[in-house]
Amino acid sequence: MAAGGFKIRTMDLNGNSHFEFEGEHFARRWWWERGLITMRDRSKNRKPLQRGRNLSIEAIQTVQALKRMNKKNDGSYSLQQVFNGKVKRLLKSDVIAVLRELLRQNETQLAIKVFEDVRKEHWYKPQVSLYADMIAVSAANGLFEEVEFLYMCLKSELKLEPDNGGFNALLTTLMSFNLTGLAMDCFYLMKGLGCEPDKSSFTLLIDGFESNGETALLNIVRLEAQKYFGEEFVHQKREQRDEIGL
Fold first, then answer.
1. 123-126-130 Cα angle (round to 5)
2. 21: helix, strand or coil
3. Distance between CA atoms of residues 133 and 71, nearest Å
4. Over the stretch 133-185, which tens digit does the pLDDT of each residue have?
5. Structure pTM?
């Protein structure tokens, strides 16, 4: 008997047999099994493609196909083929999931193209929150022409429902990127839809206009805020600004 123990006949993955000492065999097997278990444990930690919702196989394939065709830059005809062959065949929930996944991946122009198709569907219902998300991603990527395009689409919607949360999210984006003209227009759009601005709406506008030195717009918003919440609210905002030295 050799120093390494008994010899054991083993077979590799190619079907070839060979001999190795018993100690070597069990050591090799222990490390192989440990590596396999470690790989399995790591696989459990993989995050879904989209937080809060697992995309269907069809939706994932559609996102991949759109990105692949867009990178090839073979012209709009090839991209339109993907839309006709995949996007238009998806269920409503999958189309919206594709749109949001493209936004999450900063594929803004592809997302807008999907959105333009969505608007043509009979089941489409405009949502301020979705517009706010698209405009936020567009602005973050420096696509300000797309921001204006999407905002004009928002204004043209005939069945837009009041949504304070959605409008405040939109106001936050517009003020963050110093789009004060659009922010003021958005304020009037809110009121025109019967969506009463709340204290958060006025705080966003007042703080933004003060920071940008937009005195004329600031005075208008302060007067509006006073009508809704009284002079005390406007006075408190001034005191807060004075306390932080702005």
1. 115
2. strand
3. 24
4. 999 999 999 999 999 999 999 999 999 999 999 999 999 999 999 999 999 99
5. 0.74
